[in-house]
Write a structure and sequence with these properties.
Alpha-lytic protease prodomain-like, alpha+beta, 9 helices, about 300 residues, elongated, 4 strands, Alpha-Beta Plaits
Length: about 300
């Protein structure tokens, strides 16, 4: 038998979550634009290549937030005949795009650093205002990262988690630029390029974590431990065994199905009522569940053999 949340509750929950994610992404987008313009244009004024590069990297962050916004809108569309499980994976697709943007940013930062090292010269011009601008933008990015990461955990959003990782990469870049500027100020002109290479490696690792999370969704990685579900299900009087447990989906929308063995003499009505209670308890214990499919099976020797195999 198949049972699920009421349609109205599911739709309202999705709409509320989508509005929240869009508000967060819109705010982060505006912050990234402001930060990128400040760094880029002051970099032009002072002929600072590192500040210009950091400004360009911040523009990647803004683009990432825009991509995430579009992905969230697509993911919030309700299920239809062609997509009976909904469109939630569009959010995962958007996170992959953000991962690609991270790779592009890592390439840009690393490539420029290598060119500067081979040329054995640096055109960075350091002024006190350079440090002021970089420190202010650093504080903005740190605050944005913390806020977005918490928001992502609150609603189990892959796109917010990926965008937070993207913003965090900008924090690393900014820290690297500040360290490089300080060392240039102290008389080490190539320090900026060396620091940029380290930052590039950090960005690559951030991209790897984003791709790893997306791969978990695309490969239908189990979202809830099977043993935990079996324990909860078997606590109900009338349930003899539980096996063939499967879960999949995005972190915020998980689908579960399993076989539940009951007394062969149990009536269809009693089995239905038992399954309904099991479903309600699962939904209460795991809020990320949006659909539970329960296969009622008679507790026979044949079914128990299936249990032993699973």
């Amino acid at each position: 038998m198949t049972s699920s949340l009421t349609e109205h509750t599911a739709v309202e929950g999705t709409r509320t979550r989508t509005r929240y994610i869009k508000r967060v992404l819109a705010g982060i987008f505006l912050l990234n634009v402001a930060v990128s313009l400040a760094k880029f244009f002051y970099g032009l004024v002072t002929n600072s290549a590192s500040m210009q590069a950091d400004g360009i990297h911040s523009l990647f962050d803004a683009a990432g937030s825009a991509v995430g916004f579009v992905g969230t809108v697509l993911a919030s569309r309700p299920a239809d005949s062609n997509h009976p499980y909904g469109h939630a994976k569009f959010e995962t697709f958007a996170s992959v795009v953000l991962g690609i943007l991270l790779l592009a940013a890592a390439y840009k930062v690393g490539y420029d650093a290598v060119l500067a090292l081979f040329a054995q010269h640096s055109e960075v011009q350091v002024t006190p205002l350079s440090f002021v601008i970089m420190l202010v933008t650093l504080c903005v990015n740190v605050g944005a990262t913390v806020y977005e990461r918490r928001a992502g955990r609150r609603v189990a959003s892959e796109i917010l988690a990926a965008d937070a990782a993207h913003t965090l990469s900008d924090v690393f870049v900014t820290v690297g630029v500040i360290i490089g500027l300080a060392l240039v100020w102290l008389g080490f002109p190539l320090a900026d390029s060396v620091t940029a290479l380290v930052v590039s490696a950090i960005i690559l690792y951030t991209a790897f974590t984003v791709f790893r999370q997306a791969f978990g969704t695309f490969s239908d990685t189990a979202r809830i431990p099977a043993a935990a579900i079996a324990q909860l299900v078997c606590e109900h009087a009338g349930v003899d065994q539980c096996h063939c447990i499967r879960t999949r989906g995005v972190p915020s929308e998980v689908y579960a199905d399993f076989h539940m063995l009951v007394n062969p003499q149990m009536s269809v009505r009693d089995a239905h009522d038992l399954a309904k209670k099991v479903e309600c308890d699962l939904l209460s214990a795991y809020p990320m569940l949006v659909d539970v499919t329960i296969h009622i099976e008679p507790n026979t020797e044949e079914e128990r053999r299936v249990f032993d195999k699973s």
